[in-house]
Structure formats: structure tokens, C-alpha cells
Design brief:
The chain is 15% helix and 34% strand. The chain is an alpha+beta fold and 135 residues long.
């Protein structure tokens, strides 16, 4: 059974110094989605993420919710886009970023374990000069 309880709330951004930024929907709570796993996913390798040019030119920000696995070695696999806002234009960039990323292994009671069906939230934001990426 798959239930989505994500409500899209559009925020009005009153001012932006260099450009008009288009609003995006409310971000999902990844901590809840990950069942309270008390582990902050820390990247050991972070590839360069490319902001989709079409969205950058429009001043559009966004986010992509991806579900996937992290192996004992910190590699990602089985990545699947679950949700996004405001449109799917950011999806490929988010998947490519996660495919090239490497993560610190998850430890449970001192034992390294793979993480299955872990949720990643990749956020695309426009800064005053350069786009920034969080996830």
C-alpha cells in the first residue's frame, strides 16, 4: 500500500536580489520516511551536480525525492524517483548525482550494514550568484 501525504503548498518569494525565483512545493520529511534511522547520510564522494539549464534560465528551484539502496561499501543502487516539485526537469540531475556519490557505511551496533529503500532529498536552490545543492 502506497500512501502519499505530501501536500503542495506554494510559497511566495517576495524578493530576490538578482532574479525572480519561482516557488516550489513543500519538501517531504526524509527523517520520517526513513523510519527514524538515526544516521545522517554523509557523502565521502560528491560529484558535481548540474543544474538543468532550462530551469536555471527560468529561475526555477526544485527538489527531487529519490529512494534507493546504499551498499556496505557506500555505493548507491536501485535508485528511483518517488516525487518531485515543481516538475520532473530536476529528476535526471538528481539521479546522476546520486549514482556518482559515495556514502559512509551505515553501522548498527558496530556492524556495517547495507541500507535498503533509503530516501534521499536532493534540493536545487538558486543562490545570489551560483546554484547550490543540498541533499
Amino acid at each position: 500500500m502506497r500512501s502519499k501525504l505530501i501536500h503542495f503548498c506554494y510559497l511566495l518569494l517576495a524578493s530576490c536580489a538578482s532574479r525572480d525565483v519561482m516557488p516550489v512545493g513543500e519538501r517531504p520529511n526524509v527523517q520520517i520516511l526513513n523510519g527514524g534511522v538515526e544516521w545522517s547520510v554523509r557523502r565521502t564522494i560528491s560529484p558535481k551536480m548540474l543544474y538543468p539549464k532550462s530551469e536555471f534560465d527560468k529561475g526555477q528551484e526544485g527538489w527531487v525525492l529519490v529512494r534507493g539502496d546504499i551498499s556496505k561499501q557506500g555505493d548507491t543502487s536501485n535508485l528511483k524517483v518517488i516525487d518531485f516539485s515543481p516538475n520532473a526537469a530536476f529528476s535526471s540531475a538528481a539521479i546522476n548525482y546520486l549514482r556518482g556519490s559515495k556514502f559512509e557505511p551505515y553501522k548498527q551496533k558496530g556492524e556495517i550494514m547495507p541500507l535498503k529503500n533509503y530516501y534521499f532529498l536532493i534540493i536545487f536552490e538558486l543562490g545570489e550568484r551560483y546554484p547550490s545543492y543540498k541533499g
